[in-house]
């Protein structure tokens, strides 16, 4: 059985850290908490789980804090979590089993990170992260914001999820302030930095500036392919927000130059034509999704509903607009295979039953 050090950096997490540590306490053989300036009860709550609590002066650099936390670890493998992450009961069971069977030649274990959920609590937005790494490899964190662990060697993808449960109403703006301060000092952002700075600008409604940075990122030719593909879609959204529909469509179509089509982009283009009431073209793009092979392992951002539920229910709407009621009803039934309890599907079902009954009279 392998041993695990849990390494966390925290600040003012009294609302979440107890829940997080309670979910991981039976998996981690060592818990290391690095506090970057809490003024609440974070450290007192953490003390109920561990005595390895360290202070680290915050220098606007997440990687610096995480690397310090990793340096305190003493077990074979290092696991990292944020305070608003948890492991659900089924994932705790899987993780305990993994500790017993992990081959000794594995350097990195990739876990799925679920960060978006529908009304029934099902994960609809996720991606893989490098969660568990061999301490002897001395991997280092990179980037001051939206940091990542620079890993290499033998990787293993496992069917274990970390669930993100961010409390509502937390203040934003920290990340964008860090980026802007570094740019003001004359620092050049890395390709990853350009990409995430553009996303921050988009999130703050600064669409014109976001367009500039997404374009710079794409022009660099140095981005990770999954980020490049996603950037094309985000660029399209920014152009739409700036009321530039032709530029938006061109941006979305650029994604196909980098790899086979992603369902997320096809749905985005489908919505583009649906909003123009060009239902024939919308049908083409939504139906294309259903012909794609869903990758078993997609390390980039994945919107689960785009790979089945969304294209089916949108095809039901589009075919209804085109007057093909039976086909529309068929696609609504297909959507129900993904989410049988969806209020939209149940509403559509009654609608189509009534329409078809009147049509057949």
Describe the structure.
The structure is a single chain. The protein is 47% helix and 17% strand. The chain is α/β, with parallel strands linked by helices and 361 residues long. It folds into three domains: 4-164, Alpha-Beta Complex (Spore Coat Polysaccharide Biosynthesis Protein SpsA, Chain A); 172-259, Tetratricopeptide repeat domain (Serine Threonine Protein Phosphatase 5, Tetratricopeptide repeat, Alpha Horseshoe); 276-361, Serine Threonine Protein Phosphatase 5, Tetratricopeptide repeat (Alpha Horseshoe), CATH 1.25.40. The strands form two sheets. Strands 1, 2, 3, 4, 5, 6, 7, 10 and 11 form a nine-stranded mixed sheet that branches. Strands 8-9 form a two-stranded antiparallel sheet.
Summarize the structure.
By secondary structure, this protein is an alpha/beta fold. The protein is built from 14 helices and eleven strands.
